[in-house]
Amino acid sequence: QVQLVETGGGLVQAGGSLRLSCVVSGGTFNTLSMGWFRQAPGKEREFAAAISWSGGYRDYVDSVKGRFTISRDNAKNTVYLQMNSLKPEDTAVYYCAAVSTRRGSMDANDYNYWGQGTQVTVSS
User: Fold this and answer.
1) Which 3 state secondary structure label does DSSP give 89?
2) Nearest in space to 82 (alpha carbons), one of 11, 30, 19
3) Can you tell me the distance from the alpha carbon of 18 to that of 120, in angstroms, rounded to the nearest whole number?
């Protein structure tokens, strides 16, 4: 059973930075593409970033391009989301997700495994 555990959320002022981590256990990490999704209060879950199982392909939603960076360390079974220049509209619960395909997806329905989420709050 693949399990995902996110850490690194918190409260930060606008313009600040946070780094989210997601540790994966119970699976072969280097055969999983990974994604980060987020859900703000009263809104649907939305795609934020994805990375292929090799790390060679990355994709971002337009609203985070140039501010967020997704990366992975296959030796540590961990995927990261470095978030810089945070804005109040980035406030959400951030979820890590995994899928057994070569490249990640922007569609949450494609992912097989999910973490419990970590809260990110950006104050103005």
Assistant:
1) helix
2) 19
3) 9
Q: Rounded to whole angstroms, what are the CA distances from 45 to 13, 95, 107, 109?
A: 23, 9, 10, 11
Pairing mode, strands 18-25 and 58-60: unpaired
Distance CA 53, CA 63 (A): 24
Distances (CA, A) of 108 to 21, 38, 99: 19, 10, 10
- The residue type of 93 is V
CA dist 118 and 22 (Å) reads 10
Condensed to tens digits (0 to 9), the pLDDT of residues 66-120 reads 999 999 999 999 999 999 999 999 999 999 999 998 888 999 999 999 999 999 9
Paired tokens of 6: 């996110």
SS3 100: coil
